Amino acid sequence: MSLGDNYHRVLESIAAACAKSGRAAGDVHLIAVSKTHPVAAVDAIAALGQVDFAENRIAELADKKQSAAAKGIRWHLIGQLQTNKVKLLDADVLLHSLDRISLADKLDQRFAALGQKVQALIQVNCSREPNKSGVALADFDALVGRLASAKNIEIKGLMTMAENSTDEKTIRSAFAELRELSHKLAARRVFSAYAGMLSMGMSGDFEYAIAEGATHVRIGSAIFGSR
Ligand SMILES: *Cc1c(COP(=O)(O)O)cnc(C)c1O
Question: Rounded to an integer, what is the distance from CA 51 to the centroid of its chain?
Fold first, then answer.
């Protein structure tokens, strides 16, 4: 299977999952997760028209952002960001993993100094696994409270990872929980730029995520192969 075949098969599966849940195909955006794969793989998929790419490490993202031949790429950071690496984050990268107050503080400070705004999603630990990243549900309101006064961070939506499970009900309940949390947050009108983005679903569970309302799916291995 070539990269192009993989890519087109993923696009078809996304379209099929949209049709199955009565959603328009354009409602769900594919983010190609290129982590650990060479920039040549990014260029190959970008040449097929793919615009959104994600990395889980900021240093690797910065490298690929600089060396990719395709210039119109929209980059996403989907892994944990250490506060001492905030300086590597550019304002045109969408951060999916804003998960704690200390990171919000650093981001707000950094982008205020630059006179820029950074766009971010709040990552929530909906699966409640203790070793999973994302803000705990119990700490969500406190983080939202801090972000409400962060003038240089625009919160656009929420992100989660489901439990690594084969049980449909378990996986879908995490995605459904993120959707409900987002609806409640939107109704509170805390963030003026809030766009209801729901970043959820990976190679193994994106069909369930689409059924539960995902607007952005993050797919790596189904396109680029195993890592
Ligand atoms: C690696 C990664 C993905 C993609 O995982 P695949 O199973 O390869 O599709 C999605 N989201 C996050 C946060 C990741 O770290």
Answer: 14
Residues in the chain: 227
Tokens 């009900």 found at: 169
| CA distances to 103, 114, 167 from 110, in Å | 10, 6, 42
Closest by Cα among 152, 128, 153 to 140: 128
Q: Distance (Å, rounded) from C-alpha 211 to C-alpha 129?
A: 23
Q: What is the pLDDT of residues 146-178, one digit of tens each?
A: 999 999 999 999 999 999 899 999 999 999 999
- CA–centroid distance, 34 to ligand 1, in Å, is 9
Choose one of 123, 218, 219 to mutate for the ligand 1 pocket test, by most ligand atoms within 8 angstroms of C-beta. Answer: 218
**Measured distance CA(76)–CA(64) in Å, rounded:** 12
Query: What's the CA gap between 182 and 215, in Å, rounded?
Result: 12
Per-residue pLDDT tens for 117-152? 999 999 999 988 888 899 999 999 999 999 999 999
Token pair belonging to 205: 């569970």
Q: Which residues line ligand 1 (CB under 6 A)?
A: 33, 35, 56, 78-79, 161, 202-204, 218-222
